[in-house]
Amino acid sequence: MTDTWRRADGYEVSTDKARIDLDVVHGFLETAYWSEKAPREVVARSI
Predict the structure, then answer these.
(1) Longest Cα pair distance anywhere in the chain, in angstroms?
(2) 0.85 exceeded by the pTM?
(3) Contact of 7 with 14, CB cutoff 8 Å
(4) What span, in angstroms and rounded, lies between the C-alpha atoms of 8 and 42?
(5) Buried b / exposed e along 22-43 (16+ C-beta atoms within 10 A)
(6) C-alpha to C-alpha distance for 47 and 42, rounded to whole angstroms
(7) Which of 1, 9, 27, 29 is the Cys-Cys partner for 38 at CB 3.0 to 4.6 Å?
């Protein structure tokens, strides 16, 4: 089951995993100091 919340200004929050762009998430985590060089496979599993 997924949930989606929308605000009038267009901002949206969803729990639908299919909507997550793994490349974008991994790209961010790969460069963040607290998750530097996080393997893509680990990120995918965590989602």
Answers:
(1) 37
(2) no
(3) no
(4) 35
(5) eeebbeebeeeeeeeebeeeeb
(6) 9
(7) 29
C-alpha triplet 10, 16, 20: angle, nearest 5°: 80
- 21: its two tokens: 């762009």
Alpha-carbon distance of 1 to 15, in angstroms, equals 8
Q: Is 20 exposed, middle or buried (0-12, 13-18, 19+ CB in 10 A)?
A: middle
pLDDT tens string 18-39 = 999 999 999 999 999 999 989 9
Nearest to 43 by CA among 18, 2, 28, 13: 28
